[in-house]
Specification:
This protein is of the alpha/beta class. It folds into 2 domains: 214 residues, Rossmann fold; 58 residues. Helices cover 37% and strands 27% of the residues. The strands form 3 sheets. Strands 5-6-7-3-8-9 form a 6-stranded mixed β-sheet, sandwiched between helices. Strand 8 and strand 9 form a beta hairpin. It binds adenosine-5'-triphosphate. Adenosine-5'-triphosphate binds next to helix 1. The site of adenosine-5'-triphosphate has 10 residues, from helix 1. One of its GO terms (molecular function) is ATP binding. It comes from Mycetocola reblochoni.
């Protein structure tokens, strides 16, 4: 488990992480989201002890990860694909990493298979695409079969094939009982892999919860198709319901579909389709951000 406890970080007198606390539990994928500059990478770097917290601490399985007898077994870290050594081959780098951690070099070939780099292992890293570099970076993080895994923006630059691979990979690591903490801007993808979501905005946690809890923040809404859409929108608005044209129909917010349908019907509309819509993680993300901004403006 990764336990972030009340961490604070300032740069040049500006607080970029402001009393952040949350947990990434064993057996779950925790998605870490927030706008650019929210402080996600800084928190992950504090977990990896690359950045020192001004206040607070991050415990990994109950202690700062650097204090564990074999730190790389405690926490696997992927922060960037840019720092890999271009002149080495993929397999060469993994063998080097294995030797430096006292792991049998045979693990290097296993890792190539684990991250799907077969066929490219003997090529220089300089020739790797971004997606291949991401896979190699994740392989390094997995070197010592860590019980916790931190991945900063691992989805960036991946093609659809690699995204599908990553989805299966992180889910598999979590289902084996490990904690996975993963930052990303790809809401649709995160909606497929995350069990829990932690949202940061301007250095503060603005929302945490299971994926199901998180998506209920998006507006409750329903989708209506009627013969005269303009009349349907007007009828709903006349009843004080927020209604907006969408696709071939109308989205009505914070209303049960039955009531929305009744309003349109009473106004003489002919209904063709009526359904309730589940908000996506992206909808909820923007709804939470809007709420956080409104509170922030009052601060
Ligand atoms: N070493 C540093 N020196 C000065 N400022 C920094 C440093 N590292 C981060 N910051 C600042 O801290 C803030 C938070 O940055 P951070 O990279 O943690 O955000 P993020 O949520 O990961 O953003 P993104 O989604 O764009 O990666 C930013 O304003 C950034 O400019």
């Amino acid at each position: 488990m990764i336990d972030v406890q009340d961490v604070v970080k300032s740069y040049g007198g500006r607080r970029v992480v402001d009393r952040v606390s949350f947990r990434a539990e064993d057996g779950l994928v925790t998605g870490f989201v927030g706008p650019n500059g929210a402080g996600k990478s800084t928190v992950l770097r504090m977990a990896a002890q690359i950045t020192r917290a001004d206040e607070g601490r991050v415990l990994v399985d109950g202690e700062p990860f650097g204090q564990a007898p074999l730190p790389a077994r405690r926490l696997g870290i992927f922060l960037s694909a840019e720092t890999l050594p271009d002149r080495m081959t993929g397999i060469g780098f993994l063998r080097y990493a294995a030797r430096s951690q006292g792991v049998p070099v045979a693990r290097a070939a296993e890792l190539i298979g684990l991250v799907g780099l077969e066929g490219a292992e003997s090529k220089r890293i300089a020739s790797y695409s971004l997606g291949m570099r991401q896979r190699l970076g994740i392989a390094v993080a997995m070197l010592c079969e860590p019980s916790n895994l931190v991945l900063d923006e691992p989805i960036n630059g991946l093609d659809p094939d690699a995204i599908r691979w990553l989805r299966g990979f992180v889910t598999g690591v979590a289902r084996a009982g490990n904690a996975v903490l993963l930052s990303s801007h790809h809401m649709a993808e995160l909606g497929l892999v995350a069990d829990r979501v932690v949202m940061l905005d301007r250095g503060r946690v603005v929302r945490t919860g299971s994926l199901d809890e998180f998506v209920t923040v998006g507006q409750r809404r329903c989708y209506i198709e009627a013969l005269d859409l303009d009349a349907a929108v007007a009828a709903l608005r006349a009843e004080g319901v927020r209604a907006e044209p969408s696709r071939q129909g109308v989205l009505a917010f914070d209303i049960e579909p039955e009531r929305a349908g009744a309003i349109v019907y009473r106004a003489g509309g002919t209904l063709r389709h009526l359904s309730s819509e589940t908000p996506s993680l992206e909808d909820s993300y923007f709804a939470s951000l809007g709420a956080a901004e409104a509170t922030g403006e009052q601060r």
